[in-house]
């Protein structure tokens, strides 16, 4: 799992059929890496999320028909004060 901030939504005129009803979001990790993930929770730009990767996570959360293995599993509401102050709200 990793912690990332939502940069923006992604969209296109054509999508794989398994993505119907799900948002795709561009994310940036604390290290500055970018990735795309499937969102079924309604995260928005600027929010911190937890992303999990793998077919088991996908199958248990959004379903095996979704053609991606990076899934947003939580929207972060807060963090312990011991975390990096940039991430804390």
Short précis:
By secondary structure, the protein is mainly beta.
Write a structural description.
The mean pLDDT is 88. The chain is mainly beta and 89 residues long. It is globular and about 40 Å long. Strand 2 and strand 3 (34-39) form a beta hairpin. 8% of the residues lie in helices and 38% in strands. A five-stranded antiparallel β-sheet has the order 3-2-1-4-5. It has one helix and five strands, in the order E-E-E-E-H-E. The protein has one helix spanning 55-61; strands at residues 2-10, 23-29, 34-39, 48-53, 70-75. The protein has a single domain, classed as EutN/Ccml (OB fold (Dihydrolipoamide Acetyltransferase, E2P)).
């Amino acid at each position: 799992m990793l912690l990332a901030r939502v940069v923006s939504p992604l969209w296109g005129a054509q999508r794989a059929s398994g993505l119907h009803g799900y948002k795709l979001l561009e994310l940036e990790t604390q290290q500055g890496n970018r990735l795309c993930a499937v969102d079924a929770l309604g995260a928005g730009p600027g929010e911190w999320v937890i992303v999990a990767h793998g077919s088991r996570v996908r199958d248990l959360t959004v379903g095996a028909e979704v053609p991606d293995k990076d899934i947003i599993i939580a929207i972060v509401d807060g963090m312990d004060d011991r975390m990096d102050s940039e991430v804390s709200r």
